[in-house]
Amino acid sequence: SLRLVDEALSAALAQQESLAADAAVDKAARGRFGRKPPSERFDSMLATCLEWEETLGCAPTMTECDLEERAAFEDEEGRLVKVLRGSFEGARCPPVAEALRVCYMEYSPLRLGGDIIFKLLGKVVDGQVKRLNS
Fold this sequence. Notes:
Blueprint: H1 2-30, H2 38-55, H3 67-71, H4 75-92, H5 94-106, H6 108-133
Helix pairs in contact: 2-4, 2-5, 2-6, 4-6, 5-6
């Protein structure tokens, strides 16, 4: 009977070690605080930027983008629209996108700034989409 207890404990310990190892791998893959790693976040932002360009009718294959004219009424939004248009250009230029990726991945203050700017641009896009649909 001692042997059965020993086998049961050994199996339980092995299972616990396996679960701990899986949790460590998952935590490492998710990064600190359960967030995606910076490379995945950057790729997601880049893809979203290209989607915004298409949604707003500013893709190179579409007619001329008139975002600046639509936002000219508000100075703050007008500046952010210029940043948005620059983001569209940068997202389509592989050397620029790669340089931004390196900055985003290597310098945490720039990563934080990039995250904040991306959220602001998301609000600008939402406003522009509402204007397009009204």
